[in-house]
Amino acid sequence: MPRFRLAVVTAVATSVFLALCPSSSFARENEEPASAPQAPGASSASQSSSGNSAGDYLGSEVCKTCHEDIYDSWEKTPHWKTTLDTKGGPSHHGCEACHGPGSAHVSGGGDVSKIFTFKDAATKAINDRCLTCHAGGTQHMNALNSEHAKNGVSCISCHSPHHATTSEFLLSKSQPQLCYQCHLEQKAQFAMPFHHRVNEGLVQCSDCHNVHGTEGPKQVRMASTQDAVCFKCHMDKQGPFVYEHAPVKVDGCQSCHSVHGAPNAHMLKLSNVNLLCLQCHTTSSFSNAPGAPSFHNQASLFQACTLCHVAIHGSNFSSTFFK
Q1: Are the CB atoms for 9 and 3 separated by under 8 Å?
Q2: Which residue, of 11, 160, 232, 302, has the fewest CB within 10 Å?
């Protein structure tokens, strides 16, 4: 039989076999997989990361219909830029990125129980909402474990997404007045005769503290060299020195200074310099620091240790910090 006729006969026989035996393994391997039925207008991208369908999101323009005053204020903030973002889908755009899908809220005639409102929400719920977008970066890495979070201070306690009064960070008040709402003790310290010039606007609280949390105590920042944050400004005290004054490296600047403010010059904890030094330089066993020599007459000549020990933060020439 010619090859052409043989090929035709083979093809016809195969077709007849598949028609009579649709459940055969050969047929199952060669048929197209059935697609799952979809609702009209549905697509593979119709589900948001939160499990709400794309149809539940109405867009910020719908929110503006009832909340025009809030929208006009919010439109001037960095959050408005999310309406231009083509990534993430509708759950990451505009008002609904923070408040959730608005379809049920609108169909319910403005029922506030149908949408997430920050006013009466728990601190953790509020922080979780904000950290959905703001969890990245070095500033927010410890936000959930920060002192503020542990004490029930939420993001909106300091930030106002709708009615911010500062050009940066959407703060509800500018520093330091914002911080003084809670930190009344520090407010009094900055009113001392000798203080860091926070009230004058030269230094801000957030220059020294990461308000979103750090691994160290008091949410104090570290300098670029991972030393005390004080060295950001007081670089001449940083060293390294051949002869280090131990308290600077071990206890930090606050071992001698009141870091916010004090009634004493140089913000020292005690007005009498000798008494300050003698807290460590005694003959008692609790300190490894050498005691004052017997020839030091504290009543007359040697009334201020720093008259001789001038390089008290560290020296490259003298083990007794004379120069």
Answers
A1: no
A2: 11
pLDDT at 30 over 90: no
Residue 66 confidence (pLDDT): 94
DSSP letter (8 states) at residue 144: G
What is residue 30's DSSP assignment? H
- The yes-or-no verdict on residue 117 having pLDDT over 90 is yes
At 47-98, the pLDDT tens digits run 334 457 766 899 999 999 999 999 999 999 999 888 887 777 888 889 999 9
- Given a contact cutoff of 8 angstroms between Cβ atoms, the answer to whether 238 and 230 are in contact is no
Q: Which long-range contacts (CB under 8 A, 24 or more apart) does 183-192 make?
A: 186/260, 189/258, 189/260, 189/261, 189/262, 190/260, 190/261, 191/261, 192/258, 192/260, 192/261, 192/262, 192/263, 192/267
Q: Is 220 helix (H, G, I), strand (E, B) or coil?
A: strand
CB atoms within 10 A of CB 48: 19
Note the pLDDT tens digit of each residue in 206-241: 999 999 998 888 899 886 665 678 988 998 888 889
**pLDDT for 280:** 87
Question: Do 168 and 158 form a contact (C-beta atoms < 8 A)?
Answer: no
In the numeric block, which tokens belong to residue 95?
């008002």
Which residue has 């047929």 as its token pair?
Answer: 27
DSSP-assigned states of every residue in 240-270:
--SEE-HHHHHT-GGGTB-SSEESSGGGBS-
Handedness of CA 168, 174, 176, 178 (dihedral sign): negative
- DSSP string for 182-214: T-HHHHHHTTSSEE-STTTTSS-HHHHB-TT--
How confident is the model at residue 224, as a pLDDT?
A: 62
- Measure the CA–CA gap between 220 and 212, rounded to whole angstroms: 10
Contact assessment for residue 256 and residue 276, using Cβ atoms and an 8 Å cutoff: yes
Between the alpha carbon of residue 295 and those of residues 32, 291, 301, the distances in Å are 101, 12, 10
Rounded-to-integer distance, Cα 123 and Cα 158, Å? 12
Reported pTM = 0.74
Q: Provide the phi-psi class of 143: left if phi over 0, else alpha when psi is between -120 and 50, else beta.
A: alpha
